[in-house]
Design brief:
This protein is of the alpha+beta class. It is built from 3 helices and 6 strands; from the N terminus they run ααββαββββ. A hairpin with a 5-residue loop joins strand 5 and strand 6.
């Protein structure tokens, strides 16, 4: 069995929407994922706050990645099943810091809690992600 990719390798191969909004992984495992996104004009909503969709996107990406790291050796597919994000305090500049912690590892679903903080360590948003684990689709 091949070793799972390192966090640095995952950052190198990141593509699509995650690259577009600037997701950078800091730590990654099947139990815990840390990531960050630098705040720039493209991720702000008209009032100057980080757009809520950015938080939801980060949550889905880090929870899906952590789940993937836990089931890839079994050739199983993962996809977001539920995303509930609550916003507590705005971030307008600096960096969004995300900490995803696995809460449940089931046969067909995994549950993750994701906390978002600003550069001062203030809790700014929380997400609960449910990730589906399924056999890969066949053509």
């Amino acid at each position: 069995m091949a070793d799972p990719p390192t966090t640095q390798e995952l950052n190198t191969i990141m593509a699509g929407f995650d690259r577009l909004y600037g997701l950078q992984l800091v730590q990654s495992s099947a139990e815990l994922v840390r990531a960050r996104v630098e705040v720039r004009a493209e991720v702000l909503q008209p009032a100057g706050l980080v757009h809520g969709g950015v938080y939801a996107s980060i949550a889905e990406s880090v929870a899906s990645l952590g789940t993937h790291l836990g089931v890839a050796s079994q050739n199983l597919a993962v996809m977001g099943l539920g995303n509930s994000t609550s916003f507590l305090r705005p971030i307008t500049a600096g960096t969004i810091h995300a900490l995803a912690q696995r809460r449940h590892r089931g046969r067909t679903t995994w549950l993750w809690d994701v906390e978002f903080t600003d550069d001062a360590g203030h809790l700014c948003a929380v997400s609960r992600m449910t990730i589906a684990v399924r056999p890969p689709r066949t053509a």
